User: What shape does this take?
Amino acid sequence: MRSAKNFLCTIIGVCALAQRISSQSPAQNKRIVIAASAALDGKGHVLHDTRIVVESSKIVAIDPKAGPVDYDLRGLTVLPGWIDAHVHITWSFGPDGKNAGQGETTQEAAYAAASNAWLTLMAGFTTIQSVGSPTDVPLRDAIAKGMLPGPRILTAGEPLSGRGAQTGTPDEIRAFVRKQKEAGADLIKIYASGGMTRGAMTMSQEQLNAACDEANKQGLRSLVHAYRDAVRAATLAGCTEVEHGLGASDDDLKLMAERGTYIDPQAGLLLETYLQYKDRYLAAPYYT
Assistant: This one.
């Protein structure tokens, strides 16, 4: 019986183990039984002295009598893998220490992306949504094939960056959305505002309407980087979700609730990080 010493963390996400199992060849896939003193079921309950049964990449049963035990985690707590709905997994800091953003495609950036994926998985995040770089796609696919360790990735691929009239006509924007779908995007990311202190809209209502309507037609969710006036505009456009949302009024929030628009405020730690490492972020797009 393999002991808990094989695990790097005392609190693990079971889905991390499933991800490892799913990266093996079909011939190597087998039934795995994990014994745990306590398990969080993801529904608000704590299960005691139970066993978790995993087959291929799925948890198929919670059975206190299952056996034989492959991983003995008694004395530890097991919980489902964490989900982070807004990351930039392939972004990194360049050789100068500054944020390189989505445009960095050097060998160093590739190594950094692989490292980011590994560290994210070991932190307990087994599914992430990465919103803003075409380089997410090969990393997502490499992890899915078992070539690299990392969390499951949902990616927006190339984002739609608002640049006023240069963003394109509604028809051109619709074509852009379809292109991302063909390139393998799991969702559409739209930058409809500038940075936190320059949060004016960078797209017209008509452009935003076209982007989110086409995303809906393609079966894709639309996430909109939006501050102030862009929050209401994204809601009126039928977009799925507003990211950040700084400067939204009470009326904006009420409208979002009425329309069923989600908001991901990303307050607290995000802003603390920007302030703590402001020398690395200053002057980068969307950070000032």
